[in-house]
Amino acid sequence: MGALLFLMLVLVTMVSIAIYRFWTCINQLGQSKELMRLAPNMAALDGVTIFAALSTLYFAALGWGFDLPLFFHDEPLADWQNLFMALACCFTCIGLSLKNAGRRFEHGPSWGGMRESAVRTLVAFRILDAVDVSRAMKESELVIEANTLEVRK
User: Fold this and answer.
1) How confident is the model at residue 148 (pLDDT cuts 50, 70, 90)?
2) Residue 106 pLDDT > 90
3) 71/69 Cα distance (integer angstroms)
4) Burial, 45: exposed, middle or buried (Cβ in 10 Å; 0-12, 13-18, 19+)?
5) Using one digit for the tens of pLDDT, what is the confidence trace for 18-59?
6) Are 105 and 18 in contact, with CB atoms under 8 Å apart?
7) Cβ burial, residue 86 (10 Å; 0-12/13-18/19+)
8) What is the spatial distance between Cα 28 and Cα 147, in angstroms, rounded to a whole number?
9) What is the pLDDT of residue 90?
10) SS (H, E, C) the chain
11) Is the pLDDT of residue 127 over 90?
12) Which among 53-57, 96-100, 109-113 has the top mean pLDDT?
């Protein structure tokens, strides 16, 4: 049981490190407010993913015999209950990260891969924003003709 708990902790730690590095790279670019404006659910779901990772750590510590407070129980949980809860939290963490991340973490958890993922995410959202503006302009008949523009070099 200890090896399975350790494996779950390794998995959720890797996911948590990838999320941390992604948001650190976004902050280094100075674009965190813009990304939260363009994709408000991304930061929230990353927070829920980190909470699921911490819950996995909590139930793994209970499974290893640490005396931690139980919030809704008066008596300690059995070993199989701790294992089941840790497994459920681990699957939740990994499932949410796969659902929320898309292609953010495909270049690995290295700093270089995370910088590239941060730039790629920002560019993708800017392209989608430009497409939405273009569609809105066409629907409201505010199309600017290329011949009417004055171009200077």
Assistant:
1) low
2) no
3) 6
4) middle
5) 899 999 999 999 988 988 888 889 989 999 999 999 999 999
6) yes
7) buried
8) 41
9) 95
10) CHHHHHHHHHHHHHHHHHHHHHHHHHHHHCCHHHHHHHCHHHHHHHHHHHHHHHHHHHHHHHHCCCCCCCCCCCCCCCHHHHHHHHHHHHHHHHHHHHHHHCCCCCCCCCHHHHHHHHHHHHHHHHHHHHHHHHHHHHHCCCCCCHHHCCCCC
11) no
12) 53-57
- Give residue limits of the domains in the chain: 2-148
Contact 56, 41 (CB under 8 A): no
Q: Residue 153: which pLDDT band, with cuts at 50, 70 and 90?
A: low
Token representation of residue 44: 């929230």
